[in-house]
Write a structure and sequence with these properties.
The protein contains eight helices and no strands. It is mostly helical and 207 residues long. The longest helix has 35 residues.
Length: 207
């Protein structure tokens, strides 16, 4: 009996590590398939095959394909956001930063998948906490990036960083949702740069 308990304790961490690795492979595979086939339906069998897993492991680890796709969509968005940060750091001034960031965000390949994830959070309440968790992560990541950048450049914002990040991403995602829902026009017609208050000029309210 003691030997059995010892073996169980020894194998349990390995089992948890295997489970985490499988979850990660499934999320990465789903994100890759969604990126390669924007707008197309991706099946559980395809995701499992790409991850080297079994289809029933999708349900086991995530509860449903939709829950997995929500996580995969936001993983793709966070990866894209890091690339956007590199573009932002290359901007010579605040005006170029606002312009370049807005243009790059609206061209991100992950946006179609993220808009489907947002729609899933609306239609399936059980997914709403997953969507909210990833949105909060996106907001915090963006807030940290902008905070470090404006501190190093001596730039300023005309509102709190948290509000800046939420306003920017809410506008960008909302624009894509509207277009995908059939609204006339394109996301490119939106003045997304105008939602940013980051500037490197004296604040007119304090001159």
């Amino acid at each position: 009996m003691e030997k059995t308990r010892t073996e169980a304790r020894a194998t349990s961490p390995r089992s948890r590590d295997r489970g985490r690795a499988t979850r990660h492979r499934l999320i990465e595979a789903a994100a890759r398939l969604c990126r390669e086939r924007p707008g197309a339906e991706v099946s559980v069998a395809e995701i499992a095959d790409a991850a080297g897993a079994f289809p029933n492991q999708v349900t086991y680890y995530f509860g449903s394909k939709d829950a997995l796709l929500v996580r995969a969509a936001f993983l793709g968005l966070l990866h894209d956001a890091r690339r956007i940060e590199r573009i932002g750091r290359q901007a010579p001034d605040a005006a170029a930063f606002r312009r370049n960031i807005a243009r790059a965000v609206l061209a991100m390949p992950s946006l179609p998948s993220v808009t489907r994830a947002l729609a899933a959070g609306i239609s399936k309440p059980e997914l709403a906490p997953v969507v909210d968790q990833h949105l909060q992560l996106l907001f915090r990541q963006s807030e940290r990036f902008v905070g470090r950048l404006i501190d190093s450049r001596g730039w300023k914002t005309r509102r709190p960083l948290g509000v800046e990040a939420r306003t920017f991403w809410s506008t960008a995602l909302g624009a894509v949702l509207l277009v995908r829902a059939g609204a006339h026009g394109t996301a490119g017609e939106l003045d997304l740069a105008g939602t940013l208050t980051i500037h490197d000029e004296p604040d007119p309210d304090h001159t």
